[in-house]
Amino acid sequence: xxxxTQSPEALRLQEGESSSLNCxxxxxxxxxxxxxxxxxxxxxxxLFTLYSAGEEKEKERLKATLTKKESFLHITAPxxxxxxxxxxxxxxxxxxxxxxxxxGTKLQVIP
Amino acid sequence: DxxxxxxPRHKVTETGTPVTLRCHQTxxxxxxxxxxxxxxxxxxxIxxxxxxxxxxxxxxxxxxxVSRSKTEDFLLTLESATSSQTSVYFCAINGGVGTEAFFxxxxxxxxx
Lengths: 111, 112
Description:
The complex is a heterodimer of chains A (111) and B (112). With 111 residues, chain A is mostly beta strands. Chain A has strands at 3-7, 10-14, 19-26, 30-38, 45-50, 56-59, 62-66, 70-75, 84-92, 99-101, 105-110. In chain A, strands 2, 4, 5, 9, 10 and 11 form a six-stranded mixed beta sheet that branches. The model of chain A has no long low-confidence stretch (mean pLDDT 94). Chain B contains no helices and eleven strands. Chain B has strands at 4-7, 10-13, 19-25, 31-37, 44-51, 54-57, 64-70, 73-78, 87-94, 102-103, 107-111. In chain B, the strands form two sheets. In chain B, strands 2, 4, 5, 6, 9, 10 and 11 form a seven-stranded mixed beta sheet that branches. The mean pLDDT of chain B is 95. Classes of the chains: A mainly beta (111), B mainly beta (112). The A-B interface holds A 4, 31-32, 34, 36, 41-46, 49, 51, 87, 89, 91, 96-104 and B 4, 31, 33, 40-45, 48, 56, 90, 92, 94, 97-106.
């Protein structure tokens, strides 16, 4: 059974204090790993897709990396507007579009 | 923003009543999905569709049915709502396997 574990569950940072969120996964054949951002009361918003170990993608203050067992979302010099829940999801080589989501890391950036 | 509209946005219903949630897209994407999101759980797939009249079950499909008679509309029906189906329901779409999904704003359903 595919599993996705995100840590920490919650993270509180001062504005400008860089940190990383972790997504560990166990999957039968990784076809892709996704990062989403979710604001309260809204649907998840796509950030990145990573397909193979060693791949990296960046967008503004966010950088996502992937190894064979985990992915990191690095946040550099965060701002209050980066406060949100960040979700990780993996697509496995199941018989359908089998995407397994983690429970998320709730990030709060304090001015 | 991807053109996905969910309706209603909020609903309170009584145990045992049927409920239908609607997802409408303007992107002409092939794949549509219904997820539920509960505290302590990640988003969990209820049903998905890979084309008009082509649907399949996800991991938590018991008590739910779906229909897709047009590319743009995907309906989720709770045949007889139970309190365990109180949740936030999200519709999502994507254009193909391995591509990113775009989510609707969600429907908060409360079964009393």
